[in-house]
Write a structure and sequence with these properties.
This protein is of the alpha+beta class and 133 residues long. It has a single domain, classed as Trna Endonuclease, Chain: A, domain 1, CATH 3.40.1350. Helix content is 35%, strand content 31%. The protein has a five-stranded mixed sheet with strand order 1-2-3-4-5, with helices on both faces. A hairpin with a 3-residue loop joins strand 2 and strand 3. Helix 1 packs across helix 2. The chain starts with 8 loop residues before the first helix and ends in a 9-residue tail after the last strand. This is GxxExxY protein.
Length: 133
Amino acid sequence: MTTGPYKYSEITGKIIGCAMEVHKILGNGFQEVIYQRALAQEMHWQGIEFSREFEMPIFYKEEQIGTRRVDFLVKSVIAVELKALTKLEDVHLAQSINYLEAYDLEVGLLINFGQKSLEFKRLINAKYRSKPS
């Protein structure tokens, strides 16, 4: 049995495949919301369970201090953040990792539709606290 972040390889691969299909058809140059809608449609057609614009609480020392919407929460365990930028910066990567830590999710994806070739990064939360089974 695969454990740790590797147990998500199959589903993250499917999500990336959906994003590649969207990028192949739409190319780059649209606003993020267009890619978000198209990816939602593609993941639905591929039978991937997800919530779009899922609002999640942000905690500071066990006190809720606000909320943040993740673009997609897949199977209740993978955060997917979308961008439509000509260049991903380190700050976008740091922001996505911060969300994983704040949501206590083990794995996430950062997908950028803004370049001629689709850009994606698999993210692992080094501070992940596994929940008891």
